[in-house]
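Ticket #4471: complex job returned nothing on first submit. Input attached below:
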Amino acid sequence: MTVVTRSISAVSAPPPARFGTPVVAPAKRRWSVLVWFSYFWIGLVVFLAIFASVLPIASIDQVVGPPRQPPQLGSLDTLLGTDGTGRSMLSRLIYGGQVSLVVGSVSALGGVLVGTALGLFAGYFRRGVDWTVTLVADVLLSFPALVLLLAITSIFSPSVPTLLVGLALTSTPTFIRLARANTMAWSSREFVRAARNMGASDGRIVLREILPNVLPTIAAYLPLVVAALIVAEGSLSFLGLGVPPPTPSWGGMINAGATEMRTSPHLVFVPATVLFLTVFALNQAGEHLRLRFDRTLHD
Amino acid sequence: MQQIAVRSTKESECKITFPAELMRSEVLAMWTDVFRRVGYALLVILLVTIGVQALMALAPGSVAEVILGEAATPEAVAAMNSELGYDRPFIVQYLDWLFSALQGDLGVSPITHIPVMEAIMQRLPVTLELAVLALGIALIVAIPLAVFSAAFPNSPLDRGINGVTSAFLSIPAFVAGPVLVYLFAVTMKSLPALGWTPISEGLGENLRSAILPALAVALTEIAAFHRVLRADLIGTLREDYVAAARSKGMSRSYVMFRHAFRPSSFSLLTISGLSLARLIGGTIIVESLFVLPGIGQLISTSIIQRDVVTVQGVVAFIAIGFVVINMVVDLGYGVIDPRVRRAPRARKSPTAAKASGKAVPA
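Support reply: We reran it on our side without changes. The output follows.
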């Protein structure tokens, strides 16, 4: 009797952690300088973008000095110089970063939601569903991303919602393929078979057994996709088909500066450096996360 | 490795007993695979063109409104639309477009009155030259870098090369273009900043005008090629036969080039085919920056003029080219690598999964 009661109390004492956060193995290697720098830079850009309206910087259309002033120490507004009409490069870069980050991450999230759902279905149910979903992904992939984006923005006039839909559409096939491959790998595992033998429904198996295992991989690819989408948004802005003009964007700033590069090269170099560093940091962070969480790389 | 060895011994046994029959079934399997792939590619092309047509049908406003301008009366617009055939049902319009497209007729631009196919053919050589040149630059730079990286993996040299190529991966064409122009055209004044010299006016001049734009789009490809080839080479150098060759006393460089390089170059071949397709779509940026008369410029000008017929034709043309190159690369893979030919369904190699360095082909 005593034994039984004790074992019951022992079981009921620690509540079963069924809804806890997924446990992640600690990193094997120490972070390199580049990874540290990358996370620092991403944090800085995100911080500046979030608190842009609170920061003591000039507004985006306020003239703060003579046009085409090179970067100089002193006043915060002219720290990175002024653009062709004398507006502060620093504040335009910060507000442009806001646009890039919002457009990149929101459309990536859209792509993740649609792509993961389709990939899970395809990888779990196989057969007809798989064939159809793979076909959809192949059709989407056969448009070069920039051409598809150009077509979409030319048909529906360039605006932030159009951009978001177009960019989400271009990032969806990546996530379809990723989710599908990982779902197929996980569905053949013993615990999935065990769950099925215990009578779990398909929905439960997909959502509770497979999805939690697929998510870390997808999350690890997220920075890489956000970087690619920021580049795509920059390319569109560079062609004049991105975010409409009064709103600053990095690609648009590079495009505007390219015409006056002979006299004042900083108009190109400052936004180009910021864009390069951001994309580089996102790529490094993504690579770092991918090496840790992508199980398909460990085989 | 173990499995492949077992399978090959089994097959050689079979060959001793039924050589002719086995050969026939193998050839049959290969041709079934070819037909399956071609059929699938045709299906994708069909869906792509339907998608383009649907996209154009979704567009607010009509071609007639664009041609006649803002001030056109609704009656005039309706008359123009029925004249151009835009008042017919979607499926009829699509089939009409499809049948003329099959005969090589992509329609006539209502704005410039030039047949779309003619406009594409006029500009294709420029874009193709840029893409091939960029591919060549990327291969010439990436292959030695990858060989050095793989010869000394995780050494300071390897890490240095990796750092440089990761930096290249983060330099999109619209950043690289202006910077290259500043370095080579503004500061050093050694290359022209914009414009295109056709090849008929001399190869040297032609290359001088093509090298900067090609370099601008080649940078990201260098990084992608380096990654793939490095990973494959490191994997191959771990194989038993490489160890056997080394233990026979062959030098490291001989083994690297005669034993390891060829079997490691297959995924490089695949992704260079894909990147050629990607480059054809991706030269839009540099063509607009350097003012080159290529396909990309055709797209951007027709987009600005809202010339939907041309946009539709060019997008369909590029997408079809993309699918065809993809398919040819897929099939070519089997021609070059006998292991793939034997087992057409089990071709997913782990290195191919690793090769997806770029998340979104931008």
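Residues 1-16 of chain A have pLDDT under 50 and may be disordered. Closing as resolved unless it happens again.
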